[in-house]
Sequence to fold (603 residues):
Amino acid sequence: MGGWWGRLLRVDLSRGKISIVEIDKRILVDFIGGRGLAVRLLWDLNPPGVDPLSPYNTLVVASGPLSGLPLPSSGKLVVASKSPLTNGYGDGNIGSMASHHLKRAGFDAIVIQGRARKPVYIYVENEKVSLEPAEDLWGLDSFSVEDKLVREHGRNIGVLAIGPAGERMVRYATVVSQKGRSGGRPGIGAVMGSKNLKAIVIKGTLQPPVSDMESLRKTAEEAYRKIMEAPGYDYWIRQGTMATIVWSQQNSVLPTMNFREGVWEEYESISGDLMEKLKVDRRACPYCNMGCGNVVRDEFNELSELDYENVAMLGSNILLGDLRKVADLNRLADLYGLDTISLGNSLGFLMEASEKGLVKERVEWGDYKAVRELVEDTAYKRGLGSFLAEGVMRMSASLGGEAVDFAMHVKGLEVSAYDCHAAPAMALAYGTSSIGAHHKDAWIISYEVKTDRLSYSREKVEKLISLQNIRGGLFESLTVCRLPWVELGLELDYYLRMLSEVTGLNWTWDMINTAADRIYTLIRAYWVREFDGWSKYYDYPPGRWFKHPLTKGPYKGAKLDPVKYENMLQEYYAMRGWDSNGVPKPETLSKLGLTFASSVLKQ
Fold:
């Protein structure tokens, strides 16, 4: 059987022990790889209730069956752990040469446990694995770390590193690669920092196992050609996700003033059209022919890689209407290893708290100079930056009162860049996302604006689950990018064909949907296991969208209806086979082969 090596690399930092462990092939087939493999490993290896920043929390770096192969946008990997931001399951994907090299080193995943006594980095060259001292790297930003490691080991490597934010365990510190590729929003960089792990360097030279290479090569060539022939290809190459600024403004979902509004009069000052004029380069992940990394020169003439999420959250959400200044903040976040979405949210929350007199410090909307200092202070947890470093759930809890309503998060993860006053299905997508309020699992808002925008229909719930199974189940477990399908309409059957040709198994959509249901249900079981007193209200979006209607734009006066939202949520639970509190039912666990979780959930 191709697609998997059936091996994982296990590193115990506390004891300095490195071992290679076989993985049951049944687990690989059932959970596919990437996210699916990660959650199964975390369920098995993490003690229930483990402190995310303790040595006992496990960090997983996982590839998928299509990783390391020349297939459309296959250069991604998943980093996962128990989240220090949410205390639940947390993961993120990164487009990086590290994905290519991990699979070619002969491993499906790396499992990292314990805590090194002194800073180290892990060096992997096929089966040659070592722990190297990193005291000279500790304190460096993520860009400098990669430069130094490339000088040490050559350019043909993959590097995953943390910056000062990860070292100081900022709760939304990320893992960074290739000077702008950042992943692990729920604080996976902080988990690395808690382990005294500065970086992972991977160099692989093996050929991943493939069952039918000739057929796979033909399918890949056909898919690559389809992407380039798509009607929207040229425009995508010009703007990538940055085109979403104008789209969000037109559809009244552009986050503005801490999600107070969905439109902003100055949206053109951060738009994709302006980005095109400033653009100096374009970057792509390995094996991608539709690179979305738009590079501009920022306020200080430094290179900054932009996409929609970071520009909206560090632009309209804090009323900063200067793309070069936004690009500077984005570059600093990548440099320090901070998640741009949570950072923009935390800054917006602080500005609103300041406006309302809930904090003594004055931080004005759009104050670039003050924000720039706060970004650095957050990374180093200095002064007011220590407050920002906690994320909006904890920030609002410390202030209490009305602050809870304008803390824009679900389960502790800050909302990504789509306002949902007038988008009930997208609100439900945030509410039921596997890691907290993130769009990655189900960007249903595109579907929603084309249909009955304000309805709370059963059809929307069905569509949401379908999208979650494709985006969060299939793509996150194959560890390939969803954008060829989402943006340029590459037929999903190509992925089924490639998976079958790689593995030698005859994959069907029923098999994929069952695997996705299994992955989502185990992730939900993990959340329930980690929370004492789980409640359906953890699946509710922020109070602002229920209580404070929009005051401008085409949907002026719109807000979410709590009764109708609850009805949608209950329909979602029923379709997933979960009870009225969002807990997987015993019969659902049994049907999906997850009976090992039943006794834990009964408790």
Q: What stands out?
A: The longest strand covers residues 76-82. The first helix runs from residue 25 to 31.
